[in-house]
Amino acid sequence: MSKLEQQLTATVAGPGRRRFLQTLSAAGVTGAFGPAAMAAARADDPWKAADAIVKRVRNAVKFRNEDFVVTAFGAAPCEVRAVTAWTSFTESDTLQTPVAGSHDCYPAISAAIAACHKAGGGRVVIPAGNWYCAGPIVLLSNVHVHLKAGAHIYFSNNPLDYARYGAYDCGKNGKLSITRWEGNDLLNYSSMVYAHGQNNIALTGEDWTSILDGQAGVTFDGDVDCWWSWKGREKPNWAGDIAAGTGNYVKHTKGKTEVHINPVNPVSLREVAPHLSEQEALFIQGPNDKWRTDSYYLRSLAEARVPVEKRIFGIGHYLRPHMVQFISCTNVLFEGYQTTNTPFWQHNPVNCHNMHVKKIYANSMGPNSDGFDPESCTNVLIEDCHFNTGDDCIAIDSGKGPDIQFGPAKDIVIQNCRMQSGHGALTLGSIMSGGIENIYAQDLLFENAHWQTDPLNIAIRLKTNMSRGGYLRNMHVRNVHIPNGIRTTPAFYSTLPGSLIPTKTVATSAGGIITIDCGYDPVSDNVRIRPPSVSHVRISNVTCANAPTKAGNYSCYQAVVVLGPVASDYNGPGKPSILPVSDIEISDCDLGTPVNADKPLYLYNVKGLKLKNVKIAGKVVNQTLSA
Predict the structure, then answer these.
(1) Which band of pLDDT confidence, cut at 50, 70 and 90, is reported for residue 234?
(2) Of the given ranges (35-39, 72-76, 145-149, 424-428), which has the lowest mean pLDDT?
């Protein structure tokens, strides 16, 4: 066994899970807010279970009263200059960036965190000013990293800076970190703020002038590309999932993206997965070379159950790092700062437990700039946050394909949050192979203030398919106000040849206020062997106003879209049970006036969708529907 394999054997199986179980044992979770009490609360009143989660999570972190100011360890502020940079996939503007040769604060911040941790904990303070950091901020147990008001951290936009300091020496690919990318484990560039297997940690700011800036739209030195170029997205149009904007868009170099074939990836999956038969390898690879693009190559490695120590990416690959990714951590606080211009997802805690998210502003409009994606996390409270994103505002995940060792995402409360632009305001999936359960969302404002130029696509959204699979059960949503409607033009996914659903006929990508999509983008997955299950969803008191569009006053394209599992998408052995979406109740809602007035509802493979006192286009519906 190599040194790298020995390291990973000790860590990738999840020390955080063991630490979490030990923490729970020490805390006596069979008490007032333990699993037994919460289960009883759910049976009686689901919102009592939500209250129990809130009480458990608030004030979970505690720190020694000692400050470690980064300037005492050699940090110095930097000068900035104006530069034209991308602010979204379709818009550019004048931004500030550190001048060439700026002092690198990475060593000082790392030294302050190490000293704080060694002393038994405390607060690492980053004062007001502009700070340049050419490497990741890596938190350790009992460390609270705090940005004062006016503290603006500009993270280097040189990819090499996130392949210098990782724990795993992968040779020419760099020194990499254990990360997770769209639900699959790998060794890759570190996120810009990172933690693995730590306990009692916090990342906070004094207010939204405390900024973590990924500089994702600033071109690399001597290059025409930026972090967002690696997406490889082609020129948009209004029929797709984003607005065309001015007609300008982030350019990319062909061959240097996640969606172009990467010649360093093998020509046969059996080169890295010799345990597969030729037939198995061809099934995972699919009918063409698309699997050799980095994003699909990682999926293929996971489907082939290639061990993580052989899923080496980093230098020479194009999977963008997250802004903040904590893995297998317990007792976590995120509070009071702004993230912006992030290369990929803004926050992705994985297998984290007892986590409080409060008053953050997730403000990045680039491709895949999800605001907050808790993945296989338990006991989570997200409250008083503001989201303005280039993808989903909140997306709850639980791993993709075989990578479900951390279990489901469950016991999550979301309340008093405000959402602006994004693909989905409140989203579950699509990365949900491990399951999602016990979700409570209440008192939300989907403001959609940019409805004229970059509208919110969907308000409440579930997405999965025969590849992602998983389950959703016991989801409760109440008191959602949508004052400016959502996107009123539909957007569609292509379906597979021979599908029971004609291609581009169901508006599951944009246009539905409430959308349950169990046939999500099936052409993107070669392996489709995991039928999903969706049951016991309760949504009440959603009010969606009409907006004065050019075509008239409308709230959406369709009010409710439910596409249950599509049996023809399955390509595995045998004939599995394909369950309809069931036990869904929508009550006491006013969903405004849909553009598609003739068909305000779309239903397929649904059993017992109950509408109680639901107003659509001024008419009240009380009906139980199946299709």
Answers:
(1) confident
(2) 35-39
**Which strands sit side by side in the sheet containing 324-327, from one edge to the other?**
137-138, 193-196, 324-327
The active-site residue, picked from 373, 391, 411, 517, is 391
Q: Which residues of 202-230 are buried (b: 16+ CB within 10 A; e: fewer)?
A: bbbbbebebbbbbbbbbbeeeeebbbbbb
Integer Cα distance of 507 and 492 in angstroms: 5
Structure tokens at 570: 């399955």
C-beta separation of 355 from 380 below 8 A: yes
Q: What is the pLDDT of residue 6?
A: 54
- Which pLDDT does position 21 carry in this prediction? 35
Nearest to 589 by CA among 467, 482, 507: 482
Interacting residues of 117 by C-beta distance below 8 A, sequence separation 6+:
140, 141, 142, 143
Place 44 in a pLDDT band, splitting at 50, 70 and 90.
Answer: confident
As a whole number, mean pLDDT of residues 183-197 equals 98
- Helices 35-44 and 46-57 pack at an angle, to 10 degrees, of 150
pLDDT at 241: 45
Q: Alpha-carbon distance 228 to 231, whole Å?
A: 6
**Distance in Å from the first CA to the final CA of the chain:** 55
Single out the catalytic residue among 423, 476, 521, 525.
Answer: 423
Cβ-contact 19, 13 below 8 angstroms: no
Is 391 an annotated catalytic residue? Answer: yes
pTM of the model: 0.94
Gyration radius from the chain CA atoms: 23
- For 524-537, what is each residue's pLDDT tens digit? 999 999 999 999 99
**Three-point CA angle 215, 217, 219, nearest 5°:** 95
Are the C-beta atoms of 82 and 212 separated by less than 8 Å? no
Compute the distance between CA of residue 92 and CA of residue 455 in angstroms, rounded to an integer: 18
Q: Write phi, then psi, for 510 (nearest 5 degrees).
A: -165, 145
pLDDT greater than 80 at residue 334? yes
CA-CA distance, 402 to 185, in Å (whole number)? 10
**What are the start-end ranges of the E strands in 269-391?**
324-327, 330-335, 338-340, 353-358, 361-364, 378-383, 386-389
CA angle 383, 112, 161 (to 5 degrees): 80
Orientation angle between helical segments 278-285 and 294-303, nearest 10 degrees: 140
Cα–Cα nearest to 346, from 328, 330, 376, 368: 368
The answer to whether residue 449 scores a pLDDT higher than 60 is: yes
Known catalytic membership, residue 384: no
CA distances from 399 to 162, 209, 467, 468 (A): 23, 33, 12, 9
Rounded to whole angstroms, how far apart are CA atoms 374 and 396? 5
Reported as a single tens digit per residue, the pLDDT across 361-370 is: 999 999 999 9
Question: What is the rounded distance in angstroms from the CA atom of residue 411 to the CA atom of residue 408?
Answer: 10
What whole-number distance in Å separates Cα of residue 136 and Cα of residue 129?
19
What number is the average pLDDT over the span 542-570? 97
Mean pLDDT of 230-235: 89
Contact call for residues 611 and 584 (beta carbons, < 8 A): no
